[in-house]
Amino acid sequence: MKTIALTPVFCLFYILSYAQTTHNISMGSSYSNGQFYNLNTDITTSFQHSNWDIAFSVHGTTDAGIFINEGASYSGTPPKLYLIPNKTFNDNITNNDLGDELKNAEIDWSNGAFNSIKVSTNPFDYGWGAYNMTNHSISGTALFAIELSSGSYKKIIVDSLINGTYYFQYADFDNSNLQQKTISKSNFTNQTLAYFSFATNNTVNIEPATGWDWLLTRYETLIDYNGTPTPYNVGGIITNKDVEVVMADNINPATVDPANYTTSNDNLTLIGHDWKDYSFGAGWIVDTDRVYFVKTTDNTLYKIQFIDFQGSSTGTGTFQKTNLGTVSPIIELNNVSPIASYNVFPNPANNILNLTFELKDYTSKIEIKISDILGRTHINQEITGKNGLNGIEININDLIPGNYILTFQSNDFIISKKINKI
After folding, report:
1. Hey, is 31 helix, strand or coil?
2. Does residue 331 register a pLDDT over 50?
3. Phi, psi of 73 (to 5 degrees)
4. Which of 417, 332, 413, 366 is nearest to 2 (CA)?
5. pLDDT of 257-308, one tens digit each?
6. How far apart are CA 9 and CA 24, in angstroms?
7. Which pLDDT belongs to residue 96?
8. CB of 286 within 8 A of CB of 309?
9. 33 burial via Cβ count (<10 Å: 0-12, 13-18, 19+)
10. Residues 128, 269: one domain?
11. What Å distances lie between residue 126 and 67, 157, 203, CA to CA?
12. 45 inside domain
């Protein structure tokens, strides 16, 4: 059975009508702050890097990521996390008991430094604990030490994650100043992480309630230093788990076509830090032949080009943003359509009409037709669709001005859109 998707003509967009605007984001002097940014509203929300120490993933029922704060590495001393092997929480601990320092991987929002000690391919190994098939909870098995920014130490164990609630306890190495805490995911609706401070012994508000698309912050990554991968703390952009990004490099930013690129949310540091580079002779230099296409959770597509970075004096970066319109979602009548999203632009059109569509796990012959309101076909061509984003330019120069129907279809779907030739 074919899937027929008919959506209003108003969901099309005229790509040339969106103006380019310029915006600033900033970590402040000496990179002391982080800043969340919302692409749709241009709202920025700043926070001090020193306000939190560890953070717990709260965005999904099966997520159990726990992160260490790496952000205070320039303006202060960040907390550090160590494994304490072969010890239990009730043991007296000394600095000689500390094992390897653990770092965040910056791969996704479900795996932090506490999750980095996995030693097996067991999918139920969360690093700090293992999933129990009997009671459907995660039971803590690993003991850690945290060196706080003040230079003092705490030992900590996450006892469990049960029914969406983390249970953890921490104390001084000699078992004094014991604290037992809980963090319930239900208290952090629409949040990615719940942030915790040992200074206040409580959670702290970091993420904006209005939603965000990326976070400008400090984090550690490997950089090339004279041919050797070297850990280094950088300032860069980490994207929201629901935001998709693709980088277009070595291109002309004025003419680059988003139809040639497929966005992905596989890597939260795809924008990252290397849109800028430091030269001892020229200072900070921004890559001028690179843009990013960013798709937000409401399917709005933006083109982002960074144009300036001022360094530690202000921590401010400047970028140009172009709203490319809404990527139209598909209405699936039988839930089997291979089309994930599509665009038709510009509309109205004069000489060239662009059709882009994203295929999921599907390759097949696709017929593209443009017909008038009497059903007479004026343009008919066929392409072989490929997995990911497909793009095609349709020459409509020979059509007389008026209203037409664009149809693209295979054996599994039919999608029709009204277009206007001017």
Report:
1. helix
2. no
3. -75, -20
4. 413
5. 887 777 777 788 999 999 999 988 889 999 999 999 999 988 889 999 999 9
6. 35
7. 97
8. yes
9. buried
10. no
11. 13, 13, 22
12. no
Domain closes at, from 287, 307, 326: 326
Q: Say which CATH number the domain at 413 has.
A: 2.60.40.1930
How many Cβ atoms sit within 10 Å of the Cβ of residue 346? 19
Residue 260: per-residue pLDDT: 74
11 pLDDT exceeds 50? no
Query: Nearest-CA neighbor of 94 among 179, 175, 198, 157?
Result: 175
Residue pointed to by tokens 């980095």: 116
Asked whether the beta carbons of 103 and 116 are under 8 A apart, the reply is yes
What are the tens digits of pLDDT across the range 99-155?
999 999 888 898 999 999 876 666 678 999 988 877 888 999 899 999 999 999 999
| 67 and 138 both lie in a single domain | yes
DSSP state, 295? Answer: E
Query: CA–CA separation, 119 vs 125, rounded Å?
Result: 8
How many residues are there in the chain?
422
In a domain, 298, yes or no: yes
Task: Calculate mean pLDDT across residues 150-170.
Answer: 96
Residue span of the structural domain in which 84 resides = 53-204
Q: pLDDT: is 103 or 361 the higher one?
A: 103
pLDDT at 343: 81
Looking from the CA of 278 toward its CB, the CA atoms found within 13 Å total 8
Nearest-angstrom CA–CA distance, 253 and 1: 42
Cβ count within 10 A of residue 213: 22
Instruction: Please give the helix or strand (H or E) that residue 357 lies within, else none.
Output: strand 352-359
For the entire predicted model, the pTM comes to 0.75
pLDDT at 329 over 60: no
Residue 194 lies in a domain: yes
Measured distance CA(388)–CA(368) in Å, rounded? 18
Whether the Cβ atoms of residue 39 and residue 302 lie closer than 8 Å to each other: yes
